Structure formats: C-alpha cells, structure tokens
Amino acid sequence: MSNFSLPTLHRHTLKLEGETTMISQFFVLSQRGDNIVFRVYRGDVQRGSAEIFFRKVKFWKEDGEEEAPPVFNVDGVNYFHVKVVGLLFVATTRANVSPSLVLELLQRIARVIKDYLGVLNEDSFRKNFVLVYELLDEVVDFGYVQTTSTEVLKSYVFNEPIMFDAARLPTLGPAAIFMGYILTSEIDGTIQMKSYLTGNPEIRLALNEDLSIGRDGRSIYDYGGSFGSGPVILDDCNFHESVNLGSFEMDRTLTLVPPDGEFPVMNYRMTQEFKPPFRINVLIEKAGPLKAEVILKIHAEFASTITANTIQVQMPLPMYTSRVSFELEPEAFGQTTDFKESNKKIEWSLKKIVGGSEHTLRAKLTFSPESHGNITKEAGPVSMTFTIPMYNTSRLQVKYLQIAKKSKTCNPYRWVRYVTQANSYVARI
What we know:
The protein has 3 domains: 6-153, Beta-Lactamase (2-Layer Sandwich); 187-274 and 396-428, Immunoglobulin-like (Sandwich), CATH 2.60.40; 278-389, Mu homology domain, subdomain B (Immunoglobulin-like). The chain contains 7 helices and 28 strands. Strands 10-28-26-21-24-23 form a 6-stranded antiparallel beta sheet, with no helix packed on it. It has a 5-stranded antiparallel beta sheet with strand order 4-3-7-6-5, with helices on both faces. It is mostly beta strands.
C-alpha cells in the first residue's frame, strides 16, 4: 500500500458510461507469458488465472479465429486484455461489467505507468516494481477505480522512478522468439535423514535463518524480484513426528531423536520463482508442403563441476505427423531418440549432461496429406525429467548438523548431500 492510503477514501470513484468499475485482479504478462506484475484486489478469482489466460490466448481456436478476442470467459471468470508495446495488460472479474469500461481502464493504467516510468517495457517494470505497485494501489482500491489521472496521483505517490538507458538493451534476433519459457514451476522437496546412531542421541539441525513459511507476508518475489537473492519462502511444509519445533520460530533449528534407518525429517513445497537448471530453445521451420524440421537445444545453466543424470526430454508433435527421422551431434554418446507413433511424441534420452554444455537434436518431420493447421501452435510443450546430485534449486540449506551428546565409543560420520529431481519441468515453445 502507499504511504498515504487514507486520503483515497475521499476521492470519487471513476465512472465511465454511467457504471462503476470493479475488477478482481490485474496483471501484466510478457510475450513469453512471464508474470511481470500481479495484483489481487478481491480474492474471488483463483491465483492460477494468469496461466489459464495465457494458455487460452496462445492456443485460441474458437469461432474459427486465430487470435483471442479482447474479452472472453473461462469457468465463470471474465478476462479482459489489451496489448501495449508487446505487453499484455489483463483484468479479471466475476461480475457483469461493461467490457468497454474495463478495456478503457487497462489503457488508462498503461498510460499512467508510462507517464511515471518514461519507458514502458519489461525492464522498466522490473526496475520500478515498488513504484508500479504503489500506483496500482492508488488507482484501484478493493477492485474499484479511484482515479487514473497522473496529476491527481502526484499528491499520493512519492516514490521516484529508476531510469535506465533503453538504447543499451540487447536486440533480439529472429530465433529469440523460439526460446522455451516455463509454463509451471514448483518444487516438492524433502530433507531425508539416515541414522544408525547407538543410544539415540539428540540431533540438532539448522536451516536458513531467512527461511519463511507461507506467502501471507509481502516479499520481493510478489513483485517479480530477481532470481537467486532474498529470503527462502516455502508455501507449506510438514515435519516428522520425532521433530521438536520448540526453537524453530526463533532460530530455524530443529531438534529430534532420530529413529533407526532412513526417514523424511521435513517435506516442503515452493512455488516462488527460481532459476531453472536448463534453458530450452526450440525452432520449427517448414521444409515443404508436408515437411518440417524441429531443432531442439538444451543448455545446462549450472557449474561445470556438476553433472545431471538420466535426462528424458519429450515433445508432442501434431497428430498428422506420419514419420520422424533424427540427427544427433557426432559426439552424442549415451543419447537415444524415438518417435512414439501412438501418442505422436518425440523422446530424447541423455545419459548425462555436464554443467555449461549444450546439446542439439534435429528432427525431420513428414506429415500426412490430411488438412492441418499451424504447426508451431500444435507442437509442444517440451517436458524434461532429470536428476542433479549436489545441486540445490530451492536454496533451502542445512547450515549445520550437530549431535548433542557424543558417545566416547562411537565416532559418527556426518554428511549432507543435495539432489535436484524434476518430474515435470515444462517449457512452452
């Protein structure tokens, strides 16, 4: 909220065409579907609405149209959107409001933000997320529009914009639009302990001091913050029955008397943004009336001292694909390919991938003569499964592991190993 939220109660609600504007959510997406800004005003629309919206717009096939209309309904939620300089400005509501009213509101919000930031693009949003959210809190209150006047907002918004040189931004080549982006990202993690200590001594296990449980508190990730910094935020977690949480709230330490054998000390789930270990690039080119070529590249974004194992890559193809031939790199040892006719999927298996390396697969597609549509829209998404020993994606760490009372007759070995496993790493082309 802004520093001066109380005076907003005395402002008049903006009215267009004799009606009162009321929205449930407002968000801004990039062309790749990245969530740049997301503000919830009423809480009556699910949080996954941004993904639902982008999937619907990306693969719109209704009414014989190639592009989605500016207003449509999915499961009782009305979606309104306008595209401004390549960014999607979106509002949702379950109420029956005037479409032209909401679309005008989105245009006005974009204009207000541009007035403050000077340049309207993804980088200016990310550099000024505090200012943008302050503006949104003053423009809309509990879903109702207060004002969209830049002059009026000057009396209530006091943060200064962070300016940058737009001319220094890197240019994107033609192939950049084919870079894979993430549809969903979630970490289901566990801290496993294996203990065969005699006498059942008490164990003390310390986690990150900046660890937070639950997403009720505001954090940098709610504003689209950068990767790799800030607190570790878990959506939820549960502990083994042997764990004592007496000091957990104070210093993030767990005490327990471990049972013999292996058991989960803690299970947790994280949905905040994180940097994925792989970057996926996909290029689809037509090679004739009934032919096309797919170029699939995987780049390992982790250190060269780390190796990923048992990598499985899958990519659905159009249902009218009749034959696929593959071409691997000459040094592609331990790699296999297959085309599953039953479900029209490419399968690419890699025994291992060393950090920093890049691997390429070329697939030549032949289509049946039956009618078919847009190849790019009907192919994908690309999914991966893999295991990476000693790689910590969540940044949740075991700071130390102590035995409260050491036995004179026993010299225990203590070690910590991190493993990243992905069961559904999905990227859209």
